[in-house]
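Worked example 4.2. Below are the chains of a multi-component assembly; read each line carefully before continuing.
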Amino acid sequence: MIPELGQLALILALLLSALQCVLPIVGAWRDHRPLMATARPLAVGQFVFVGIAFGILTHAFLAQDFSVAYVAQNSNLQLPWWYRFPAVWGAHEGSLLLWVLILDIWTLAVAALGGKLPERFHARVLGVLGFVAFGFLLFSLTTSNPFARLIPAPMDGADLNPVLQDPGLIMHPPVLYMGYVGFSVAFAFAIAALLGGELQSAWVRWSRPWTNVAWGFLSAGIVAGSWWAYSELGWGGWWFWDPVENASFMPWLVGAALVHAQAVTDKRGGLRAWTLLLAIFAFSLSLLGTFLVRSGVLTSVHSFAADPKRGVFILGFLAVVVGGSLLLYALRARFVAGGKPFALASRETLILVGNLMLTVAAATVLLGTLYPLVGEALDIGRISVGAPYFGFLFMLLMTPLVLALPFAPLSRWGKADPASWKRAAWRIVGLSVLAGIIGWILGARGFMPLLGVTAATYVLSGTALYAIKRWKEAPAGKRYPLEMFGMLCAHVGVGVFIAGAILTRSLSVEQDVALVPGQTAHVGAYDFRFDGVAETQGPNWLAQQGTVEVSRNGEAIVTLHPQKRTYPRGQVQTEASIHPGVFRDLYVSLGDPIGPSTGPGGTNGEWALRVYDKPFVRWIWAGGLLMMLGGFCAAADKRFRVRREAPEAVVETPSIPTRPAEQNA
Amino acid sequence: MFCAITPAFAIDPLPFKDAAQRERFQHLTSQLRCMVCQNESLDASNADLARDLRHQIFEMMQQGKSDEQIKQYLVARYSDFVLYDPPLKASTMALWFAPPALVVVGGIVVFVLLRKRAKPAAQIAMNETGDDW
Amino acid sequence: MSARLIPFAVFALLVVLFGVGIVWNEHHDASYVPSPLIGKPAPAFDLPMLDDASQRVRKHDLLGKPYLINVFASWCFACGDEHPVLMEYADRIGVPLIGYDYKDKPADAKAWLAQHGNPYAQVIADESGATAIDFGVYGAPETFLVDAAGVIRYKHIGPLTPQVIAQELEPAIKAAQDSTR
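Applying the procedure described above to all three chains together yields the following structure tokens:
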């Protein structure tokens, strides 16, 4: 009975979302205040019902109600309760519900915090968000009902995929969706601006904190996914350029471009059309990612089970939302020229260079991800596009961006002083070379390690140079507004990430070894002594657990316990054991016994182990988290708090003399 | 098939001559796609065929075959699909050249628009006073 | 205006591509990768017979008329699905059906054939799977059509079904036979 209530709640939420889409937009069009005023209660109501549905599904998992097909497929009597909770979003139907719930959380935040926005604008924003929610609720109810019954109920469920039984599952999807879905707000602002013709830069200032927060969440979500793959999949990689990863990376790249383009539009009034377009792109790529993951058109590690009906539905929805937005853009965006003039040598130009490279990088990831599909469609043979392609082109495309990065903050808006560039360049390059020499002395031999050290120093010293400049030039108390502090954080994050990515790649040592108990393997500068394998047990698994003593020059460092777990349905899952460190991770995973075993359970013979020495791998995630922090800090700047001016007034920056819409009309 | 139920990755100790050969092997096999578990590289895949092919590649390395020869050996049997690094040929021209072309076209568009819109530097007053953030 | 339509146009192309992708996926097995060996001479092989390991079968022993090689194994689940079809069609297709026992213990394979019936004219055994690499085998069952000159004319990956036999295999066999005459 209870699951049916969940379904009913979803149906009610669908109806409310339909109203939330239609009424406020009609109200804004007719300038009918009572209609516009429905937006907020409808958003709240929709949130409540989706929340109820989500709560009921969670209850079904906690109560092990296997008469619900989704629970039966993704849970098991032996599954510990703390994994039953995230199991709610462990597969397609439930994660879709999470998607809608998070969309509603964002909508609620806009409804609550956007009260000072002009009424018509606010109504339109909520209406657009209502439409997105409508599409996804309809998708859920028609093709992916999480409450579908399985009669008769099985005695026991299948199981949650063991790969997903990890703390990473608790973190990764909700945070990632906060980012993915968060771009819907910037999107809704852009569409509302296009619908209302309010194409001054005001909408951009309102939407900036939302974009920054969403981008921050997306950074954190990608970091969580990367860390999860690293610690769970047992082969020490942190990024695979898999289609599903690419699906989250494309909106991140465009989001990074959007964050910067919005800054230009907000402060200088320029790039308005481009900012609109990027806001549409960022969310479109989120939707596209959802399509790629859930339609099964691409072969991927962790895509959901393919169902052509779902693919057709999302494709249709994608066509309506994205196609409609781009058409709207083509029709309306011609009213948006303007902004303060700037010279070729200026901060604006450098930001444009960065925008160009980020957008092309996103397009390249899209092209590489979809090219196999193109090959199939045109029947020119099946090809694979993987890490070597993406890695090579990405490095190439990011080089100009990294080179330009320190100089953008150091340049003035409007017109930069090339002489100051020269001075800064000498210092930055000098420091980078110095760091390279120190790196060489410390043992970073070879092209790639030196590249990592110098490139990271280049970014970090350039960012520091700007921080110092502010310290000297600006009056105390006004030196680092939060928005700028966020920028500094995120740019430091880029430097830290570069160091981590390049050094891990070039300095890691990976070795598969066969050891009998008592035998030692030398990997990198470390000795790994294998002390045999014993049986152990968890809440819902049995494991063979190895013991590996790690030492360096005879000095004991840590004892690692890699496991090979067997879950109730016979699924085998390796559980790597990692000794994390600021400068290096030591990482061991346990393979199979080799050859004939001697003892009971085959524990005394030779075992295969994989051993890693991974320097600087944590820096990759630290860099991503700094970028997240940057996004959050920037969003918290009090500049962005909307002040209510005269009703219906467009909050106009004094920099724009006339309304371009009137000029063109 | 078997890939779905064994998410364990391959651990396969082989008697390499030296560290350089091991790294070469790891690099090469990570760039080759497993035909059975199509989401995995030969380096990572636990599929039986992947193991056979790893051992075959190891043997070929001992015989002094180059990476290119080993790739050709596999392509002749399994097609270009095994290469994660798609070779440049007529069907992949767009894949390899579209990104640089986009940079060039985008760069030209940006430059032309800037030239059209940007005023000569002399006409823009330097924003000397006040906070330039 | 026209320049601003470019994003829309590009997106429209993408939607078409995705539509084709969905349709393609419905009619194709995504794990199917066409073999580069079609139209090329079959690799030379020299394998023992399953029934009598002392007797060997070589590629040139089979030259002169077209034949089918069907890769199977006792551990292969899909081969069990395919087997009744082979039992039914083996005598009707007009060319000898050679069984290719892939990475299998001979005793298991013999027991399997004894239990399910033996549709093959003869069975060769590749216990290590080394020769199968030369054939580009990546999953049983697979079926190769080799013509009289020893050239691979057609390959099917996955279980043969009556539909596949009627629509693809039989025309290929006919073509191979015609070119022989």
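Take a moment to check your reading of the output against the notes. Residues 93-117 of chain B form the longest helix (25 residues). Chain B touches chain C at residues 1, 35-36, 38, 48-49, 52-53, 56, 75-79, 81 (CB under 8 Å).
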